[in-house]
Records
---
Amino acid sequence: MSLPPPLPPSSAPEPDAAPKACVNCGSIRFSTQTKLPVCEPCRVAMIKHPFPFWVILASATVTLLLLSSMALSRERFHAALHLATTKKLAKQERWDEAYENYRGLMAVHSDTESLLDYAEAAFNSGHKREAAQALDTMAGRRVSKDEERRYNTLVYKFQLEQQQRQALVPVMPLAPVNVSPIRLNP
Amino acid sequence: MFFIPAPVISFLTFPGVIVHEAAHQLMCRVTKTPVLKVCYFQLGNPAGYVIHDAPSSGWKHFLISVAPFLINSILGVLICLPVALATAAKASVGPVDVLLGWVGISVAMHAFPSTGDAASLWGTLKAANTPWLLRIIGFPAVGVIYIGAALSMVWFDAIYAAMICFGAPALFLDMIA
């Protein structure tokens, strides 16, 4: 059995050999600021890695959205704050102020929750007719369990008040009877 | 809880992925860290990435890692703000609001750094020359990132986006009312 022939000398560099020049431009002067095999100008260029044009365009679109968002937010902030303040007034049972605030809001809000809030504030501030009208407008609506409970509580309060009113109807005073004075026989 | 493949979510919320990667790249520029390659969006895992050189300090690495968290969160809240205010004021919403809501939620959903960012930051934090203050801030941050990644299975990223885009403005209004 003969030995295999010797391998030919290889001129190709070792695959894991460190690069001898900048991998970008071929410069033989490596940057001392990085372990990457690049020269200093290439390292600086890599720091300023460009944003593609479509990313710049997308950023401009996002900026436009942000500006329109700010403009819209400015308008809506006062409305949202007004409603939040009104809710807080109702929570603190400051019914007169809450009613006045809700009355102004009812022109733009017709959702069930707002109507219930308004009806509660109206009832508790003594504006019974307005409360009843608000409850009437809710007829035929699909409501959640919580809304149904709130509605029924208000209706119950109305009924209770009506019963109390009937029970407290003042009794008519008896008509004065003209009784002739009794003359005792002497 | 229903499962939607990650590439589908990434596709539906692609503005967030782009902003996330752009935030990494922007912070690399600010910290003067060389960037080798950026993929802003792809239909795969990961949906995007930034390959950069090792930053010259641990703080720089921390900033590069958490930049999307700050930028995406702030941008998401600001873009979504009119929709949140309209909801709080019970006002009607139009097509512009739908667009703002989608972009805002998409951006906020991709605020959390990836586990890749966390792993890379972990390596820096473990280094012997890392300042103690950075370790005190960094280790919990890495923990939060991993917890966020694990909870993303139960839609944590979407819950987080809804919380900051709608919950935070409502809370703020309640505080100042």
Note: Residues 79-167 of chain A form a domain with the Serine Threonine Protein Phosphatase 5, Tetratricopeptide repeat fold (CATH 1.25.40.10).
---
Amino acid sequence: MSQDFRLDNVGMVNREKKISFKFNGKKYFGFEGDTIASALIANGVHLVGRSFKYHRPRGFFGVGVDEPYAILQLDRNNERDPNIRATEQEIFEGLEVKSVNCWPSVNFDIGAINNFLKMFFPAGFYYKTFMWPPSFWYKIYEPFIRMAAGFGEASIKHDKERYEHKYEYCDLLITGSGPSGLASAYAAAKNGARVILAEDKPRFGGSLLTSDVNIGNQTGVEWTEKIIAELKSMPNVTVKNRSQVFGYYDHNMLVMSERISDHLPKTQKYLPKQRLWYIRANEVLISSGSIERPLVFGNNDTPGVMLSSAAKEYMKVYGVLVGKKPLIFTNNDSGYETAIEFKKNGVNPIILDTRSNPSSDIITEAKNLNIEIKFSYVVVAAKGYKKVKSADIAKISDDKKELFNIENIKCDCICVSGFWTPSIHLASQSGNKSKFNEKIDAFVPDKSKQQENTIGSANGIFTLEETIKDAFDKGFDVSNKITEKNNKVSVPTVVEKKSTDHDKFWCVPLPKGKSYKRFLDFQNDVAVSDIELALREGFRSIEHVKRYTTLGMATDQGKTSNLNGLQLVSDIENKVVPQVGHTTFRPPYTPVSIGAIVGREVGKHSKPTRKSPMHSWHEKNNAVFVDAGVWLRPRYYKQGNEGLFEASKREAKNVRQNVGVCDVTTLGKIDVKGPDAAEFLNRVYTNAWLKLPVGKARYGVMLREDGIVMDDGTTTRISENHYHMTTTTAQAANVLSHLEYYLQLVWPELNVNVVSTTEQWAGAAIAGPNSRKLLMKLFSNLDVSNEGLPFMGYKEADLFGVPAKIYRISFSGELAYEINVESDNGYFMWEKIMEVGQEFQIQPYGTEALSTLRIEMGHVAGSELDGRTIPYDASLEGLVSKKKDFIGKRSLNRSAFTSTDREKLVGLVPIDKTTSIPEGSYIVKDPKAKLPNPKLGHVSASCWSVEYDNPFSLAIIKDGKNMIGQKLFAMSPLKNKTIPVEIVSSHYVDPEGKRVRS
Amino acid sequence: MLYINCPHCGLRSQNEFAYGGDATVKRPELNKEISDQEWDNFVYLRKSPRGKHLELWHHISGCRQWIKVERDTSTHEIFKTYKANEAIE
């Protein structure tokens, strides 16, 4: 298709490079530098989508971030990207986009029937319609709403693109490269400040690209190019295009998304697709400009109705005509610039100006160019369904209430200008309460809360001369504050033709007998009548009106609709706009892709992976790993066709019969040192620590101040003032913070230091009746007899030339030792143990067998110490000292904690001795009782007892102490199982603890 | 993201710190007889003031020191930071 609407030799696109792309499956051509919007308009395509609620045809309304209509879905390099604004996305060779919210096609959309049923879809119809009957919600309403909701489809595939995060610090961040941004950046950079200048569009210059002005005897474009070139050459300046500063957070932290590869067919090697910048700026100058305000009239959502500044930018930047019979509808001078631009390109526009008798240089120029101007005229309604074909226009009375002489004139586009709305989003996000400026009928930033200033039209300054002067001053002032330098640059002279006069008029009244939809929010289909309805129904707060009507809640966040909505509410309520107030601006200013927010923290990079020094041995020996916090631990070592169940049973059995070895490197280890270490441990643990001799270990339990068990583990006295504490894998970090808290804040008088040594030591637990024989061979010069190294003993020894520490502690309940060597020697230790252990039938065992062994023994772990249990509940009350005080002790006196029928740890065996009891099952007396069935407790851990070859579980049940021998039921509604069980002691194997002392 | 001046390390971003609650709470002394009410106040009851608040932060990914931060809970303004043992002005 030829580009019928492309002008010759106008614009900034690269005519040398023709680019083909597909829209809804059809091939089109554009040029390098085009957006999807400009390229489609060049091809005469205006129908690109359907509106959210009524499925009315949608075209292009703007030319940038404010676009409410042209939301498309993009396929790029086999990746799908919904919510792409056609006005921002640049075209590249092979680009494919399609319309959303329409079926079967944008031209023929079944959903458009909503448009004819619109009397049934007023504001709040969701709340009114989907209330009854309640049973309809799941089956009918919700699926229906789900189907109708949203624009486009998100991909469910793994996104193969790379996104990066970057942290940056600067003296001054400037958000926008329009006249004020450029001027302030230049002034500040020349005064030595480290400046970041961010521009959202591909081209720098903002309004200078399209306005007919003169700065220092240069055109706006020439001046922009000169300033940008100079800024780029300065080492203290970073200039970024395609970069949107979208959020202003605490303490001058701003976040910017840089679109590095979105305009290219494929992300280049070594580059990310997008980069998210976290910028901590000493000072911020917000130069985000302003967005043209629409005028509201009948059917003002018809494709072909668009902002006049957008029409001008399509001509001047892209060399594209939005129409050949344009109607300009304006309440200020900006519309004249667009009209003159049309005229210069050989198209005859008609201007309808709502003002009765305005005058300025630009109006004179328009008259001199013989442009037809109708004063006190308005557009009553646009005509045409998929594209504007004509307009009903009328003369309007001076009080703007009466319409006369309604006539129909032919046109193919209507360019509207309702004056300008400053983009105060960033200033508002920083905590700045805005104020209403009567002169421009819009909100501008008020007093700064953080280190920010707003400049240029974002601050409501609409003349170029004032903007440039103010921006040079602000750039100098903030840089002077930081650098304390005084290098001032001279302010250039400025020539501009348009005035800032405007008519306080935005909404055309309906002619008698007509009920045209007049839209305020173009994306969410909120019309004047919806706001009127909300007010009639009693909604007063603007926040409530917003939520009830969804005004400003679409993906464009009401950039073009908010102010007209407020104006309407204040008109109806007979208030002034500042009394109505405005809704809250929240980040992000524009939609940000989730990929950019997540950055590199995806898949295995979402958290660090910690591996023990023996990890590669486990891998080589068919270990199946499990996540234990951030650690990877062998769950079991697979032999042949074994599954988890068979393998863990084999491994656990081998520990009970021969000897096994388990990697226990992941256990938390903390060095506690200092003359007051014993006293400190005595306060931290519930049991007594003052008399522990050197060379001995002790099991300890620590509580939180609320009396709940925090963690358990063994601590060994290595020397007089040196203890080696172990914690569970999961609680290691918390315990360290806990100890530091008490040492630094509560008992600073204690002379103790703590430091984590988890990574310094590799640990192997060897457990089973053969473990002593193995130890004798590993440490041939050491006395490892029961007298030489008794239970809870500790020795330092030499393992084939490597220094090792041996702790005689046991989690499995068997005769067991834990050997620690420096991490670098871990692999060597493991191989030696396996090699020497061969003759004793050694096998490695994983966490699953470890669990089995501890459950059988009734040893508690994380599933019992679950943040709800006090020592008594976990049968640890024997370890609670009555004599001394410790962290959390006072809480144990609370009446609920001393009640005699508290839940307590017990063992469970299924009556049939074969059915495994699902973890998490409830224990009940009567499985057939009426719901809610009184719950006696829950199953905390289950295993297959290798000692007795039947299932065994631990449970915490009410009055557990007196329940031994009772027959109850374990119910798992999740697994749909009810299992008769018998309550037994939690010490299922070796209740006297003979083995560990053997 | 807050910018917290660690008295040991200097200005650091919030993501290096863990929040530690009210810094004005004082743990009852060990071995002291106190009422249930007093103990409950210490363990559970915290004020949630709007405005100036002295709070604990742990420089967990830095020097691992617990510090005290005087912060406005509504504006997030930080007025002053103290070492754990420093007297509060």
Note: Helices of chain B lie at 36-43.
---
Amino acid sequence: MFVSVSKAPPLLQINRLHRLMVGPLSLVVDEGDCLCISGASGSGKSLLLRAIADLDPHEGQALMQGVAATEIEPQLWRSRIGLLPPESYWWLPQVKNHFRNGMPLPLEQIGMSAEILDQPVARLSSGERQRLALMRLLSNRPRILLLDEPTANLDPVNTRRVEEVITSYRRENKAAVIWVSHDVEQVARVANRHYEMRDGGLHATEIEGRQWLS
Amino acid sequence: MVELSTVDLLIASLLVVLLALLSLRQQSNISRQLIIAAVRTAVQLTLVGLVLKVLFENATLGWVTLMALFMLFVAGREVMMRQERRFKGWWGYAAGTFSMFLSSFAITVFALVVILGNDPWYEPQYAIPLLGMLLGNTMSGIAIAMDRLTHAAWEQRHIIEARLMLGETANEAISGYRNQAVRSGMIPIINAMAAAGVVSLPGMMTGQILAGTLPVEAVKYQILIMFLVSAGTGLGTLAAVHIGASRLFDSRQRLCLDRLREP
């Protein structure tokens, strides 16, 4: 016996996305998903994220809750789908000038104090920049996070802090995360799905060190 | 007015030759460039003198328009060549040329019709030199501003894209660089106006005085020209930078640096 239930469209759906050597590939990401992507450098992981954020011209389409990127204003799409690039850039003199929407959560959670907001950007370390860039992204309250090696410059303690912040953000906001990571242990800590990028496609891979229960 | 003879000009040219000989000892090819430039000045200005003579004798709207368009297209090419990272293809030429057309032609016609009020309004003795002044200055302004804009877009591409990623519009992400570009395009004429008469006597006024015009009359024309040139440069620069800044992004507000040529 079947009961017909009209199922809500997935949070993010990618249909035959194609950009340079990436794709065409299709993917469905649901609320609460944390999907990790690994792969050799140059395999196109960053290109894939840029295409999803609609920063590069591409074929195919991405839909958020059934609404295609082309149906809404590009700046709206990009604030709902937050892309965090590996390198962060700052254009105003002080850190706080970049946070027009306020702080998404207390800075202590990423191992910093509020005093850093009054500092000139030039005085930040690369690790501080990276963590603050994540804060800046979260202050837009995106439903989908595209994170390109968000802990690359961080020590183990701060790496764990950032992982926890991202995981609790995902849970509290019913968000989804696509996370590019080379660290198999990190993947085991944060991901519920794992893919390897190879020959322009995403290949499902098991998460090492974790037993799947069927 | 003292009539200049060919001999007078030859004597003056000896100064350039002397300078070229002096530079010859410095093992640079500057003396060669100097001589070529001097010859070009003599030939080009003589030709223009002849063209203007014919044009003044055949003062029809058709000939004046033809001359004006020729000047516009040469200026457009000059604007394009002076930009290091100009737009590829047709746009590289059109953005600057169209902006110059918009500003220089509109201001020249305005000055001829409303201020000078000659009969006919396109009297070439006024129309061509006025347009030449406007094109010359607008050309520099647009070239500097466009060069600055495309340069900034290239140098600051990561910042522009970071701002797009954070949900800013293309307009928000580029506006700072756009304003800087307009500013740098207009600085030369602002400086020229501020220094006029105190630091330098503008060339046009000097020429008129040498040719026998009363200083007070020459000054009035120079003020008129300064105002027209600043309006023309400002409008042309605004238009060109506006066109350029929108051309840097596509309809999905993506930064399109592949539309710029490599230097």
Note: The mean pLDDT of chain A is 92.
